[in-house]
Structures are given as structure tokens and as C-alpha cells.
Write a structure and sequence with these properties.
Strand order of the largest sheet: 5-4-3-6-7-9-8
Number of domains: 1
CATH topology: Rossmann fold
Radius of gyration: 15 Å
Distance between the termini: 39 Å
Helix content: 25-40%
Length: about 190
């Protein structure tokens, strides 16, 4: 499987996902493009995370467009190795960290690291048919720095998670792309850690 990096210093280069790491649903290129364009003013210098990273395409796209660093979280060891290999091949290994664990474990680990400043951008694209992963969205918002944005990709028919946070220190905007919905959940400036 090959996925194209859309823009930035790595624009038009191809991410190659080895056969042993291909059993996942990658974010469609047009959705990556639309989400990255929506985030464009926030990307330069951003500290970001790509959760349920799969190929790592979104996180690599962020680095290509100027993000300072990206933490990739992927529970499948073959996919995690593939992301690391790709980052090294593109010469961005120093800006990238790959964590091989599930999202809940990552959340638990982050809870023990108070004062890490939070993320400016978190991209979360869990398998669409796992409600337990969708239910982590409010907790994941706790990883955001003030003004940070959680980008949550789900099936259009899925349960909106951002609605649970609207009016409580977060602004929520949902955009649909065919059968996919993307929720942009922004932590308001001046909002402390959760």
C-alpha cells in the first residue's frame, strides 16, 4: 500500500506500508488534505500526536507542513515499526517518537507526566466499529494545550463525541466527507488541564 504526502517539504513523496502492516483503514487522502488545511495556521511549530496511527500518514503530513514534533501511538508492532522506518527514511526521525501501545495505555502514561505542556494537535482515527475507543474522546481532550485541537475521525453514522464537551471549555465543529465525519474539538484559550 502506498499513500501520498500531500504538501510541505515532503510533498508528493510516498509512504510505503509493508504487507504485514496493512490490516487497517487509512484516512482517505481528501480527508487528510481537508483536515490539514483546516489546521494550517496551527501546524507550524506544533507539538502533535497521531493516535491509532496506522500508516502514520497524518502525523507525517503534519511534520511535512512544519510541526515541530509528532508522537505516533500504534498498538500493532508491525505498523509501529513501519512508521518508524518511514520517518527515518524521510529524515524526520528526530522529530518523531513512535509508541507501541494502545490509546488507553498511552492516556494512563500521560496522566503520570504532569506539566508536559499538552499537545497543540491530536489526531485520533480509531476503528469505526469500536465504541470503547470512541468513548475515550473526552479523556483525550485532556491531552490538549490551551488552544489545542483534537481531530476525531469517525463514521458519519457514529455517535458524535464532541457534543459531550461543547460549552465546557471546548468549541466543536463537525465536517462531513461522504460517509466520514471529522470533529474538530478546540480547547479554549485560558482553559486549564482537565
Amino acid at each position: 500500500m502506498k499513500l501520498r504526502i500531500i504538501a510541505g517539504v515532503l510533498g508528493r513523496r510516498m509512504i510505503t506500508v509493508e504487507r504485514s502492516a496493512q490490516e487497517f483503514r487509512p484516512t482517505q487522502e481528501r480527508i487528510r488534505q481537508a483536515a490539514a488545511e483546516t489546521l494550517k495556521p496551527r501546524i507550524p511549530g506544533a507539538r502533535a500526536a497521531d493516535l491509532c496511527a496506522g500508516s502514520g500518514a497524518f502525523g507525517i503530513e503534519l511534520v511535512s507542513r512544519g510541526a515541530a514534533s509528532v508522537d505516533f501511538v500504534e498498538d500493532n508492532p508491525a505498523r509501529a515499526r513501519s512508521i518508524l522506518k518511514q520517518c527515518e527514511a524521510f529524515g524526520i526521525g528526530r522529530q518523531c517518537s513512535v509508541v507501541t501501545r494502545d490509546v488507553r495505555g498511552f492516556l494512563d502514561a500521560c496522566a503520570g507526566r504532569a506539566g508536559n505542556g499538552g499537545y497543540d494537535i491530536v489526531f485520533y482515527d480509531p476503528p469505526y466499529n469500536e465504541p470503547a475507543l470512541a468513548a475515550l474522546v473526552p479523556a483525550l481532550c485532556g491531552l490538549l494545550a490551551p488552544g489545542g485541537v483534537l481531530v476525531y475521525e469517525r463514521a458519519k453514522s457514529g455517535t458524535p463525541q464532541g457534543e459531550l464537551l461543547g460549552g465546557s471549555g471546548y468549541d466543536v465543529e463537525t465536517r462531513t466527507y461522504g460517509d466520514t465525519a471529522v470533529e474538530f474539538i478546540k480547547k479554549k484559550q485560558g482553559t486549564g488541564s482537565e
